[in-house]
Amino acid sequence: MDVKYTAVATANGRDGRAVSSDGRIDLPLAPPREMGGSGDGTNPEQLFAAGYAACFASALGGVARRSGQDVRDVSVTAEVGIGKNTGKEGFGLTVVLRVELPDDLENGRDLVERAHQVCPYSNATRGNIPVELVLE
After folding, report:
1. Is 129 a residue whose pLDDT tops 90?
2. Are 60 and 79 in contact (CB under 8 A)?
3. Residue (of 104, 6, 126, 5) closest to 56 by Cα position
4. SS3 sequence, the chain?
5. Model confidence at 87: pLDDT above 90
6. Residues with Cβ within 8 Å of residue 48, at least 6 apart in sequence
7. pLDDT tens across 12-43, in order?
8. Distance (Å, whole) CA 111 – CA 76
């Protein structure tokens, strides 16, 4: 792979801080209340959800442009769930991507499926965690 950019961030646990090497991200971290934490900071699942939603929207835009379609009004919401792995040790993730497309967009389902094939987050998660695509 020809790497064009490398993001660098450091964290010191779920109850600490996450800081990017350029300082643009500097956030307190805290486990969510639902997992017994204070909920007084962001958590890795929220960060993953934000990154996946942004990346998927960008991939969808690229696929649509190559098809001559405009998706400037697209909105992608990523829901990232975490829970104990059934029958295994540790925890696992699930993702639901809710994609709102313009009403007049042709072949919306096809565009979303194609975006799922080119999105780096989708490629990284494929076969590792369940990802559901929902058109709204």
Report:
1. yes
2. no
3. 126
4. CCCCCCCCEEECCCCCEEEECCCCCEEEECCCHHHCCCCCCECHHHHHHHHHHHHHHHHHHHHHHHCCCCCCCCEEEEEEEEEECCCCCCEEEEEEEEEECCCCCCCHHHHHHHHHHHCHHHHHHCCCCCEEEEEC
5. no
6. 78, 80, 93
7. 999 999 999 999 999 999 999 999 999 999 99
8. 13
**Residue type at 30?**
A
| Residue 41 to residue 104: CA distance in whole angstroms | 39
8 Å CB contact between 52 and 60: no
On whether the CB atoms of residues 115 and 71 are closer than 8 A, the answer is: no
Question: Could you tell me the maximum CA-CA distance found in the chain, to the nearest angstrom?
Answer: 48
Domains of the chain: 1-42 (2.20.25.10), 44-135 (3.30.300.20)
